[in-house]
Amino acid sequence: MRSLFPLLVVLFVVFRLISAIITASKKGSENEAQVDETEEQKRMREIQERIRKKIAERRGGVVPLAPRNSQPSLCRRPCCGRHACRP
Asked: Read out DSSP for the chain?
């Protein structure tokens, strides 16, 4: 029985190490997905700015600047006042 105890301790430690490695790899892939979302949001913001500039040029007006820290609306429809996307 005494010779079995160190073996069980070693097996437990090995199991915990493998579990920690698997958990870390899963979290690493989740972080990569978040980076992609950020790049997608940046691209969407740049496209929206280009569209605003083109509209302003066609109207002959001044190009409006969007606030840097504002979040883009999640609603894809023009605001009609019936949903939560109104500022």
From this structure: -TTHHHHHHHHHHHHHHHHHHHHHHHHHHHHHHHHHHHHHHHHHHHHHHHHHHHHHHHHT-PPPPPPTTPPPPS--SPP-SSSTT--
Token duo for residue 52: 């605003």
Rounded CA gap, 46 and 76, in Å? Answer: 17
Q: Report, as ranges of residue numbers, the positions in the chain whose pLDDT lies below 50.
A: 86-87
pTM score above 0.85 = no
Cα(29)–Cα(65) distance, rounded to whole angstroms? 35
CA distance 52 to 57: 9
